[in-house]
Description:
Helix content is 5%, strand content 32%. The protein is mainly β and 128 residues long.
Amino acid sequence: MNDWIEICRIDEIPMLGARRVARPRGLDVAVFRTADDRVFALLDRCPHKGGPLSQGIVFDTRVACPLHNWTIGLVDGRAQAPDEGCTPRFSVRVDARRVYLDARELDALALDVARPPAGPACRDATCA
């Protein structure tokens, strides 16, 4: 049995956009809304370079990462070919236009996933 936490009303998620949900531990969760009011939730991290998927463009049941335009499926969190990789997905329930996430998943899923550090790849003084 799932314990569900109410996140927001569906109309508080921009159509073809996302809302971020902060967690006490781990990266945020991005909750997406499609044009036909379907709602999906993924870890707010692109599998490519860690871009914030919540800032991407939603189309159909996919989101384009704002950093390098990788397309990630909202249903399964998988990068679309020819790209490879996936981001964890979270269970969502919509009831009476209210959006709920699974409390157990929020507390336990993908806590070990980190966002890559920002800044240049080279960290020593000889970097040009």
